[in-house]
Amino acid sequence: MSVKRRDIIRHLKQYGFFKLREGGNHTIFVNKHGRRVPVGRHNTFTRIQANMICIEAGIPAIF
What we know:
- This protein has two helices and five strands; from the N terminus they run βαββββα.
- It starts with a strand and ends in a 6-residue tail after the last helix.
- By secondary structure, it is an alpha+beta fold.
């Protein structure tokens, strides 16, 4: 099963993350506490990759 990039971004935004900048291969999201999370520019991610992004962000992994 795969997870769409927009679903990951929507989940990050629900927990207070916003886009800081566009990198070369990633979009960098940050929250008000300064925690930065890179999200690759792939259309789809595996469930494992999506959950690792959530864990790195410190939010519940729901995928």
